[in-house]
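Slide 14.
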Amino acid sequence: MTLTIDLADPEYRLNPWPIYEKLRETPVHYLPEATWDGRDLYVYARYREVNDALRNRELYSSQIYRDGMLNIPMLVNRDAPEHTRLRRMANRAFSARLVRTLGDWVQEIVDDLIADILTRDRVEFVEAFTTALPLRVVGGMLGIPLDRKSELRRWSQGVMDGFAVAAGMDPDLAPGYYEDVLEFSNYMDELAQARLGSPNQGDILGELVAQEESGDMDRDELVTMAWSFIAAGHETTMNLLGGGFKAVLEDPGLGDRIAASPENLREFIEEFLRLYSPTQWLLRRAARDIRVGEVDIPEGGLIHVVIGSANRDDTHFPGAARFDLDRPNKRDHLAFGAGSHFCPGSSLSRLLGEHAFRSLLAVRHRFSLDPQNPPRLRTRQGSFGYAHMPLLIDGEAAGGAA
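Slide 15: predicted structure.
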């Protein structure tokens, strides 16, 4: 079957599900000159092929750029053994042990944000909460003072745009991103320099500086690692919080059920990530000539790996288009990737989600969607989530809190 996809078409970004259904009809689709710069694409949309592309390091390369300004030493653009070395350093800095110590601090931030929101009669929830929470947390872990939060938001968007460009987005759609990334890099360089010779404060920046002082990484790697943490802690969490709270407001029964127990809340987070994967697709290169189905992919061929489609593949998730809190295999989802490139920020994203939703559910009866100003989805390539979500707030709770 011949299928044409315009990656820049807003319909593909805002309502990709019908296109995904067509894509899943065959194992791979060949799209000549499909990227903004005229490169051919091979599209994987089924769970089996997407899962293999994420895990099989022998057949698939993550180093999309091998020269030019985008060939930078970041985790998403490296293969073993360099990726193995960088990932080991990332795991030391962003360890599960560190994340487990953050609960009380994260809860304080969540409480502060919600308390401020509840003083108003309306709020733009993306600006006030879904963006503010992960940026305050990750920014704090990187040693960035709160009074730089407006710059951090701009820098973070620049970093995310840089990742999108590296994954195939036309750079003309993100004017100024490179300058913002450079400014953030210079600032992280200054923060790291100020920490040299000082005791490790136990945050991410402290761990990174300790590794630089021991000779395990250089300054450029430290700075690009900071980019990775901004991306890992920001994108998925922001989209999860906005879309997840919208789902609760639209279905009060669902809100009641997930508020009933911590386990229901955790199951809700996993099923939401499966159904509305914040990162919809990424790229791989064929490490050697590959034959998939009836299509030959040459070595170096660019492969469009559609995570958002794989997570809706009925052959792996029966009734995949339906939200099902009781789905037994929901944790098979690929929203955080898989294999050696599994997202290092997954544990932090889940932690933020649990604390945020638990607190929001307790006051959910005071919020409602604004019928005069409906939520608006983001239009960045490869991402799915809300850019704008106005909410109305009641001065008094309209109902009990579970």
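Speaker note: Residues 75 and 87 are 7 Å apart (CA to CA).
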